[in-house]
């Protein structure tokens, strides 16, 4: 039994884990931004400062996923992402750190968006020594492509381990259950009680893990996810299903209620990774007021959503809002033309 008699507790220690970040990531006030916006007190959780090359949220998921890969005797990590995928960069970085090989499948979610000479994460795939890159069209059956890679490796006497897109299965999402615990511990130690959390909602492991964690430890701070791709309804349903799997793994009694999920899809703009005015404003505001780099695909749009919510009076004066910075700044260098003045 994992749940203790007096109520909800989660026991993450029984899952194998590698450590890629030496300490909790900082929680910092965004004083200049808060003053500029004139609304609630905005704080930031610096998951952009997680370990592995360039940091970002996938590092927390990979601590559990790579531990599982090693336990299964894998010698090669296989995963999939968009052409500027932070998840692919970090999976490759974890492979390098563990002495494993890594093969990546890149999905062209925007037609013809793959450029072999592109900067940003694409440049880092080569620099970090990816073993093989396969580019597929948007909407293709990339799982079949990864399985074919795994079969090819098996035929050579090697062993591949397939990590799903974004590392977003129940095992990967445990990384964000751990983050929920970390936030609550920091909140207690600093005496800062947060009223709301805002995060990105993409492949979903971050948002679903955070909510499952909050429910599991009975902290229940409302989390608003800003979608970077999918419409609200299917995204909320997907998150709920994933959180239920996490709840099963951790034996969280009563599971995670559907109502715990709020996704806003108003900030996607024309599509995944395509720029919006709000994103450009948010990236510039964070840079110029706080010296913090956001990214154009995820945190820029998420911050644009949060800023719009503040301006629209969604948060009460005096409330404390925690913005989860999930990383991604290495992608900035592939968007210089859009973000330069
Ligand atoms: C992958 C990613 C996200 C989205 O997280 P999911 O767990 O896929 O929902 C947010 N921000 C950055 C920088 C990412 O790379």
Short summary of the structure?
By secondary structure, this protein is of the alpha/beta class.
Low-confidence stretches: 1-8
Radius of gyration: 19 Å
Second CATH tier, the architecture of the largest domain: 3-Layer(aba) Sandwich
The mean pLDDT is 96
Name of the level-1 CATH class of the largest domain? Alpha Beta
**Tell me about the biggest sheet?**
6 strands, mixed
Named CATH topology of the largest domain: Rossmann fold
Number of structural units classed as domains: 2
* Overall 3D shape: globular
Describe this structure in words.
The protein has 341 residues and is of the alpha/beta class. It has two domains: 225 residues, Rossmann fold, CATH 3.40.50; 110 residues, Rossmann fold (3-Layer(aba) Sandwich). The chain is built from eleven helices and ten strands. The chain has a six-stranded mixed sheet, with helices on both faces. A four-stranded parallel sheet has the order 5-4-3-6, with helices on both faces. Helix 2 crosses helix 3. The longest helix has 21 residues. It is globular and about 60 Å long. The N terminus is likely disordered.
